[in-house]
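=== Structure Prediction Worksheet ===
Name of assembly: unnamed complex
Input type: mixed (protein and possibly other molecules)
Chain count: two
Listed entries:
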Amino acid sequence: MALIKGAQSGDLDSFNRLVLNYQGLAFNVALRIMGDEAAAADATQEAFISAHRGLKRFRGGSFRAWLLRIVTNACYDELRRLKRRPAVSLDEMTEQESALPIASRGESPEAAAQRMELIQAIEDCMLGLAPEFRTVAVLVDVQGFDYQEVAETIGKPLGTVKSRVARARAKLRECLKEHGELLPSSIRLHIEAAT
Amino acid sequence: MTEMDRIARPDLERLSAFLDGELSPREAEQLEARLATDKELSGALAALRATAEVVGSLPEVRPPRSFALTQDMVRPRRAYPILQLSTAAAALGFVLVVGADLLFSGAANFSMGASSEQLPFAADQLADSALAPSLEEGVTESELALPEAEAVGEAEDGLAQGFYRSDDQAADAEPAEEIAAAPEFGSDTGIVEESAAAPESGGLPAEGAAEPGEAEFADESPADLEALSGADQDALKAAAEEERLAATELEFTDQDPSVSLNLFRLIEIGMAAVLIVLIGLTLWVRQRG
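=== Predicted Assembly ===
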């Protein structure tokens, strides 16, 4: 809270400490909404600049929800901009993302490859959702937010959050089942474990 | 129909919220009772749980760089407000110039209309003098003695007749319509030219109006013309001079608004170009942030 006060009074160092505290969360939320690392980095940077400009309007409550609201709005703006001027297609963005090296400790190449395929399948299914459903899925299932904080982040009532989470999961379920048929049996079993 | 489609929307929402611990204790208790007996419902819950777990398995990715802000990033953008203000001022100026243009062009049209409205009356007077065979002071002869005055007189007569005929005899007044419409089309120079050209261009009303007068002149004998006194000729010359001056004045009042209107057009084009450049710059600066 002291950092927020300091940042509100114009201290850039205080604000940058807040940035360091939240940049991992902000970037990962942006990455899962955008599906592309470079676009997510742009949206995150833009969000922090916007947050600095609008910090005086923060009147308490959850700073994390306030910041993530700015991040999700920056992502929506970036998505709209990309839609208007698609320099890189969505498929290319997904391919770039899947090509990122993922750290593996003591993991066999085969297991790493299967994990990569699963991640690719999840990302494909996430990108198949409308952005508003994708956002709640990321916040609840990836980041573990409760519904109240999601409601603050997206600026919608709890009922809307509840409905969107359920519908996002149902759509993801169907998509993952389709992908699962193409995936190795170990992953397919993981996806269909509970059915 | 997919497995999720078989579950009613409210039940799907309850199952999802139950999974996240977002149901009230009473709602949770009721749902648990149903889950114990409803295999489809319990299967859907298991499917939702598996989905949430799979999605939650997405790895955390390390940010590629620090997003800490520098002084350059947080420096107030001065260019943007200035550009915004300039664009607004240019837009306002453009609107004012266009408004003034419309106002002046409207006034010019009104004065043109007034001038042309005077023509029928003046021409009517001349026509009366040309048509009246019983004029005692030889006004009809003045048209023979002064060809210019006659031309103007006939033209205006034709114009006047055109006005009246276009009102009264719309069915067969095609030439009259052309002449009557002339004052509405732009410059008065055009009107003067139309006026001068009207008798020559076969304007039926003009010829029709002039012919009776000429028929009367044909009846005059050369002896009668010679009988005009010197004073009468002086009076006729003075009248012709007045008409010439009036025509010159008409041309002058026509040219003045057109010059100012051209100036307005130039200013409007210039301001529009400036405005477009400013809008483009403002959008560009805004996009760059």
